[in-house]
């Protein structure tokens, strides 16, 4: 196949940041994607509907002229989140989901939830009004090995929560293990999962073999090869419970290339090329539209986009810059370590 036309995709997990970084990265998303679920882990985080309204307005203001893009806003769940504010946000159409960061799990998560019991009243209200919970599914217990944190979270936090509140719709974000894939597949209802571009391409060797490579470090950290293969099988299966959430998470290079580097991989700019490559390798180009453009809206109860994009397979490799320059500083672009041939026709 040399050409593939699909419904315009959406990104169901995206970090746009704020200020000069927001201005520097948003065009890479709005070029291809119609909508994205915007992560609320700013400093300070997006906690209230008022915070989310102001952040949405800053995003819309930063959009390149002519681009139509709809940010789908989320609230950062805390142990003090107001039930009525959450309900208000959902009713007004502003809030698409609430995000649970276990405190300390990842970048800017220290204000997250320490004790899930304290968040139960909000979660119960969300279940009642049909507002989904997006979950960063990792425990933060120091004793638990970083490569096991997703599996342990499922067993000790997610499954108990879902048994207690089966009506709550939960998105397990950036699934990185076969444990996550199997858990989602085993659920009867109200559970789905997003998968990133990079977790379909790299395993943990990318971070550690031949030297420490900070631009392949993200959270949840990439796991061993068998897990990557499970993610690829899930993403390319057409199963409606799996969809794209790039987790594109820009940090300026000095904050990644240092003794204690930040977690996050920047993929907005080349995600569609990378995905077409992966789906082609799996003999599943016919499933790319489900993964990138259909399954997400179905899960969130939104219409699919009415326009389309066309991917073209070029004879010569399609190149992307190694870094983008933002007003906040340079950001290294995800290098899949193989030549890309699929291009989005402009
Ligand atoms: C994200 C970030 O930088 O905000 N980092 C990452 O590695 N994915 C946070 C997150 O989603 O865990
Ligand atoms: Zn993220």
TrEMBL record:
One of its GO terms (cellular component) is cytosol. It is an enzyme of class 3 (hydrolase). Homodimer. Substrate binds at residues 15-17, 41, 136, 219, 251, 263. Zn(2+) 1 binds at residues 13, 15, 99, 247. Binds 2 Zn(2+) ions per subunit. NCBIfam families: pyrC_dimer. The keyword NADP does not apply. InterPro entries: Amidohydro-rel, DHOdimr, Dihydroorotase_CS, Metal_Hydrolase. One of its GO terms (biological process) is 'de novo' pyrimidine nucleobase biosynthetic process. The modification N6-carboxylysine is found at residue 99. Keywords: Hydrolase, Metal-binding, Pyrimidine biosynthesis, Zinc. Coiled coil: none annotated. It catalyses: (S)-dihydroorotate + H2O = N-carbamoyl-L-aspartate + H(+). The lineage of its organism: Bacteria, Pseudomonadati, Pseudomonadota, Alphaproteobacteria, Hyphomicrobiales. The active site is at residue 247. Pfam families: Amidohydro_1. Belongs to the metallo-dependent hydrolases superfamily. DHOase family. Class II DHOase subfamily. Catalyzes the reversible cyclization of carbamoyl aspartate to dihydroorotate. Its cofactor is Zn(2+). This is Dihydroorotase.
